[in-house]
Amino acid sequence: MNSLKVDVAIIGAGSAGMSAYKAARKHTDRVVVIEQGPYGTTCARVGCMPSKLLIAAADHAHAVATGEPFGVTVAGLKIDGAAVMARVRRERDRFVGFVLDTVDGWPDAHKLSGAARFEAPGQLRVADTSVEAARIIIATGATPAVPAGWRERLGDRLVVNDDVFEWDALPESVAVVGTGVVGLELAQALHRLGVRVRLFGRSQRVGPLTDPALQAAVAGWINATLPYSGNVGEPEVDRDGDGVVVTWKDERGHGRRERFAFVLAAAGRRPALAGLHLDKAGIPLDARGRPAFDPATGQIGDTPVFIAGDADDDRPVLHEAADEGRIAGDNAGRYPDVRPAARRTPLTIVFTDPQMAIAGASHANLTRSGVAFAQGAASFADQGRARTMGRNLGELRVYAGKADGRLLGAELFGPDAEHLAHLLAWAIQRGDTVTDALAAPFYHPVVEEGLRTALQNLARALRDAT
Ligand SMILES: Cc1cc2nc3c(=O)[nH]c(=O)nc-3n(C[C@H](O)[C@H](O)[C@H](O)COP(=O)(O)OP(=O)(O)OC[C@H]3O[C@@H](n4cnc5c(N)ncnc54)[C@H](O)[C@@H]3O)c2cc1C
Ligand SMILES: NC(=O)c1ccc[n+]([C@@H]2O[C@H](COP(=O)([O-])OP(=O)(O)OC[C@H]3O[C@@H](n4cnc5c(N)ncnc54)[C@H](O)[C@@H]3O)[C@@H](O)[C@H]2O)c1
């Protein structure tokens, strides 16, 4: 048995763990990062980057296939699945390579390979190494949730996002289960690339938007955009030779069945905490067995244990994982002088077409909070620039406090929502009022003019409310 004594042990070398390492090293050199799998991070290897590469290919295919209204048609459109996946993997490997370069720059003494688990407070076990750590950061990420029994029943015909980006070619057909972010992005991309896709929703809910008007707009869009079966609960799945038969009831209660080459489980992601033996860590756990922590410091209770990234299930997106890692690393390094850090305005983007986004507080959060707020809406149906591009689908809602006119949040479904949501998130974080936002320049013709319409409507709603 080897033994190691450090000031800070970081479990997980993902985006959160890597920024925790950088921050902790500013305080001490006695740091170790423990990683059970390959380096490279979920984001670069199987998440943000390869999914956006696949979407980029799909967008090209879609543009070529839908040029007719502009008088541009291409005869003999061909989608070469092997070439599509070759680019996805080649570019993905490039992004992973940058991460590997960073890890290569760390001293060997700071890296330990294997799965970590707690043996006692301050005591970890990694294969045949015992690690005594004054402070510990849990940055273990999350893993795809697969409905019970599906792995056993479907074997290699069941895939999760990780598997998709290892494909050498595009399959003939895929049943995508789950209408969250992963399911929507991948289902639309595969559909546009010529794969026969059916998307299955457990409920009527599609995507993260909470405003009833936008939920309705998204529901109308999904039905028109790809084969979709909503409200089916958990579909029945059975292995059938080299494929899978999916059985479900449609909205009229009629039994339906369809055969696919693969089932893609996009049924959510769960914090990777199971193998850590948290019961031995000496930390407070909530009713679900998850660490009770402070998002401003990353600290779990008043213990020297911290948590960051998808492992804490708070804001499971890349820039927040990196922030949380930095905060936890800094505090673990300076412990017991634990300091709260400012968090950014929440921002969520779904890279479908049209995109969905939430900047600041969602409609559901505002309603739950009881704050008095007004809203302004705008549709993209007749928005000038969106119409020129033939991307005039969707709408947006902007919310502001009735008391002071400050922007509180927004939900968007429409063209270039990723950019509009950034503008809004920045304005919200600055504390801008609707008047401040309307005083900013708006060029012509741009989709931002659609945002201006919503802000003008919001200003009117605020005036009417007084
Ligand atoms: C398909 C997909 C697309 C996404 N797209 C986007 C996007 O466009 N934009 C965005 O902002 N976010 C996106 N995300 C989310 C983003 O990828 C995550 O929020 C982020 O990568 C989380 O980083 P992390 O460090 O918490 O976890 P990870 O990067 O997963 O790191 C956790 C590490 O811990 C290791 N580990 C786990 N348990 C142990 C143990 N016991 N011992 C040792 N090591 C352990 C794991 O092997 C892993 O390397 C996407 C996610 C997915 C799945
Ligand atoms: N663009 C991005 O930023 C991006 C992209 C992908 C993933 N992510 C991150 O990854 C996280 C996880 O995404 P996700 O889409 O896997 O999760 P999600 O929680 O967004 O959606 C899960 C979906 O699966 C459904 N579901 C759950 N259990 C089911 C079951 N047994 N049968 C059928 N359906 C079931 C849910 O109803 C829901 O529609 C997101 O919250 C997001 O933070 C971000």
Automatic annotation (TrEMBL):
Cofactor requirement: FAD
| Endoplasmic reticulum keyword on record | no
Per UniProt, which keywords does this protein have?
A: FAD, Flavoprotein
**Locate the FAD/NAD(P)-binding domain: which residues?**
7-322
User: Which InterPro entries is this protein grouped with?
Assistant: FAD/NAD-bd_sf (IPR036188), FAD/NAD-binding_dom (IPR023753), FAD/NAD-linked_Rdtase_dimer_sf (IPR016156), Mn/Fe_SOD_N_sf (IPR036324), Pyr_nuc-diS_OxRdtase (IPR001100), Pyr_nucl-diS_OxRdtase_dimer (IPR004099)
Query: A Pfam family this protein belongs to?
Result: Pyr_redox_dim
Residue ranges of every copy of the Pyridine nucleotide-disulphide oxidoreductase dimerisation domain listed in the record: 348-454
Write out the coiled-coil annotation as residue ranges: none
Task: Decide whether keyword Flavoprotein is in the record.
Answer: yes
Gene3D superfamilies tied to this protein? 3.30.390.30, FAD/NAD(P)-binding domain (3.50.50.60), Fe,Mn superoxide dismutase (SOD) domain (1.10.287.990)
PANTHER family noted in UniProt: MERCURIC REDUCTASE (PTHR43014), PYRIDINE NUCLEOTIDE-DISULFIDE OXIDOREDUCTASE RCLA-RELATED (PTHR43014:SF4)
Q: What is the similarity comment for this entry?
A: Belongs to the class-I pyridine nucleotide-disulfide oxidoreductase family.
Q: What is this protein called?
A: Dihydrolipoyl dehydrogenase
